[in-house]
Amino acid sequence: MRITKVYTKTGDAGQTRLAGGQQVWKDSLRVDVYGVIDELNAAIGLVRVFTKDCLHEYPTLTRLEKEGRWIQNKLFDIGGIIATAPGQKLLRMPLVTDDDVRRLEQCMDECQKTLAPLRDFVLPGGGKVSGFLHQARTICRRAERRCVELAKQESVEPAIIRFLNRLSDTLFVFARWVDMICKEPDFLWERDT
């Protein structure tokens, strides 16, 4: 693929084209879903940027960098799938499969082997990397909700919804794991007494 010009001026009237050419309003649910997926991808990008800064001190975080790269590519695939008009299949269309979901589950299982069991609710925060992981997790939950809403109206591959569901859990586990590696305390919910 070669992109020679970023702006086209074709969206100035509030419409855009899905992959395959179908024209839709920019506030359509399908466009919103792949927009939230893109927002999530950007948040994962921030996680990777801040993780890179910590690798010299905590080389174990290389795992997060590796998985973060894979997750970003999968999210880009999902965005492309969602940006394709329903019923259309494009040449070399990416896939999201149950193997991808299992990979997330295996990541969580491996990280949780070293984590203490939760005894209270964890508030978003901890260190910088885990803070961005928590932010990505909340964006992921929104992406999942919007994707479920879209699936009620149009065809959405069920593996995409499963992937987003498992990804939000994975981001939560990664946040706790990073805090443990970097010796940052989790922010725990304090009940009013």
Lay out the secondary structure.
Blueprint: E1 15-17, E2 23-25, H1 29-54, H2 62-82, H3 98-112, E3 122-123, H4 128-153, H5 158-181, E4 187-188
Antiparallel strand pairs: 1-2, 3-4
Helix pairs in contact: 1-2, 1-4, 3-5, 4-5
Notable characteristics:
mainly alpha, two-stranded antiparallel sheet, 5 helices, two-stranded antiparallel ribbon, 193 residues, Hypothetical Protein Ta1238, Chain: A
What report would you give on this structure?
- The protein is mainly alpha-helical and 193 residues long.
- It has one domain (25-86, 94-187): Cobalamin adenosyltransferase-like (Hypothetical Protein Ta1238, Chain: A).
- It has five helices and four strands; from the N terminus they run E-E-H-H-H-E-H-H-E.
- The strands form two sheets. A two-stranded antiparallel ribbon has the order 1-2.
- Helix 1 packs antiparallel against helix 2, helix 1 packs antiparallel against helix 4 (128-153) and helix 4 packs antiparallel against helix 5 (158-181).
- 32% of the residues are buried.
